[in-house]
Amino acid sequence: EGHAVWAQLTVSLRRDDAGVPLHFISVIEDIAGTRAIESALQSARDDLERRVTERTRELESTNRTLAMEVEQRREAETALRESELRMRSILENSHDAFVATGEDGRIMEWNRAAEAIFGWRRSEVLGRALGEVIVPPSMRAAHDQGMARLAAAGASRVLEKRLQLPAIHRNGHEFPVELTISRVPYG
Description:
Structural class: alpha+beta
Largest sheet: 2 strands, antiparallel
Number of strands: 6
């Protein structure tokens, strides 16, 4: 048909008993199928190498991006910790009592000024209900109702207002306090 084909030629020289060449034996084998398979395999290998190279580049880029994000997160966490330490230091060294409660009214924070003003050590009040620690018995029902409304509604008419109320010291005597109630996310 006139078109080129792939073939494998194997030639052997046939000799007589004296070693004189007699003739050649030639075997021609059609290897077009084998060449097609080898070519397809090479093409598949090349394609695989190209895809591996592309994927490696993508992964390296993703790794660089993740590394930058991790570093930024570390820096943000460090800044947050430093800010937290500054805030804790400010609150701890404040001359005003700082008392933080959870939604359930249990004390979560109590600074040195609160210890001095109310007579309770921090370790004695953490986890206790604020009402049983500093609210006079005559006002506890109203206090508990107000805390329940605040927890349910998330707002109250007393938030962010300066209030003057009686409080109770550890030794039992009542005294007036001025306070401001703020809703602050606490982690």
